[in-house]
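User: These chains co-purify. Model them together.
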Amino acid sequence: MSAVSITGAAGSPESQERAGAAHRAQPRPRRWYRQPALVAGLSIIGVILVLVIAAPLITSYNPDTQNLNATLAGVSGHHWLGTDQEGRDTFTRLLYGGRLDLQIAFIAVLFPFVLGTILGSIAGYFGGWIDIIIMRLVDIVVAFPFFVLIIALVFVLGPGERSIYIAITLVGWVSYARIIRGEILVAKRQEYVLAAQSGGLSNLRIMGRHLLPNVITQAIIYAMSDIVQDLLAIVTLSYFGLGIQPPTSDWGTMISDGQNFLTTHWQLTTIPGLAVVITGLGLSLVGDGLADLLRPGQS
Amino acid sequence: MGRMTFIGRRLLLLIPTAVGVTIIAFFMIHLIPGDPAQTILGIHATPRAITILHREWGLDRPLASQYWLFMDRLVHGNLGTSLYYGVPVGGLITSHLPPTLWLISYAAVLAVVISVPLAIIAASRKDAVRDHVVRAVPLLGLGMPAFWLGLILQVTLAIKFRLFPVSGYGTGILGHLHSMFLPSLTVAIALCPVIIRSLRASMLNVLGSDFVTTARAKGVPAARLYVRHVLRNAVIPAVTVLGINIGFLVGGTVIVEQVFQIPGIGQLMINSIFQRDFDVVQAVALVFGFMVVMVNLLTDVAYASLDPRVRFDK
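Assistant: Joint model of the two components:
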């Protein structure tokens, strides 16, 4: 690899931290509930998930039913967070919107994860021309700014949920491919792989049963921050009118609806944005906690 | 190998990436469901208009020949014609480019100005309260939608306190600096988490090395120690991280330009999306792609000049 290469997993801040104390195992009890970041993150995400999943039990309003007698209402016992310009209950829309956004974000992360892991494993394990082709492809996709490519792809595919999945998959796989390839390059020189190879195991079996369980950790940790990025992409697309289509509620459309009333009813814009920030905080904490738990010997 | 040879080599390596960028931009047309010409021109398009567009884009020819046509036009500086404005796309892009370049550079400077002191504060006493406070910043920043932050800054600093214009590009250098402060700050805040994290990590690495202990033992004052000894070494990985995230920075401008109504190529792209002006969207995506490729090259060169240990080989 070249001394000043821009490829490889060097992009993640984690890899900078890893450089110093790479794989220096410290025997210490590492139970998941002793990781403050992980516990805090899981609690935040847990509360949010319970709220959005149990939305029909928590609120009796319909998120899309308009009530033109109660538009732009303030905070009250009936409307915990007030109502929007069409009299729809903000709290209800927040819960149902979060339900949709989180559902899409969690599903959307799976496709690039699987595709990137497969391509990264093939590139790292076999090397040679197939590695060159896959990594060139990575370079090309990376050349486009994330949001530019996502917005352009959703534009050509037509707005909506399906386009979001396709766009995120086409753009998102590259990070996983880089991470897994880098890990495989190191792991494939280890003795257990050489032993498996001389034992006559098939390449597929070595990759699937021996290498993958050892390298997948990094991809899982990255996936946590990737969900945050996907959530941001979904919310941003919806804000621009390219994602979730009105009247269905979503945090992005709520922010976009509310910005016309920003000076008088700031809560309409601020609250859905805060929901995104808190969800992002929770997921980042889970990611950091997992990193501490799964990568030995680092702080 | 000398520096020029190194740069030349990197330029050669850029060619396949640049060609790939054009291929992706080219294939965007073919992702459009159904007949692209029909979709782009809308349901009221006359058959004649559709035939003209087919011929102009060569949609009736084989794929390879279509790409050849696309590249032939591209190398002649022809990026197509805007369906909405009725003018060549190339001119549209040149006139919208300066605000975007301003925004990118301004945001990069602000990001460094914010991140470096925070990273020093955090790294100078690991695990102290201030370290934890600084480390919490990225956690909040990573999940913050840029357009939302832009709106909040707008309503507080521009509308309530009237410190900055609500939107626009401003006139003259001072005008640009004033008008573009909030948008640049928005992009910078989105970028800071990554820089703070990597800079803090690499500073901790440097702080643990022998030459820092020696410098401390010699009685080098703290300020001098951090600026001359620690920062100089720690900044190298941070530059790489900044370079790799330049795509993120550039992409962020698309969103922020829309929020602050800055007439850059990002806003041009979003507006063209709603005008279904396909040639413009394709060309802007292409320009953004080339921009990132060029910045990556600059990062490599900067990296090599900052760190004398980097050899210009392979």
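The mean pLDDT of chain B is 84.
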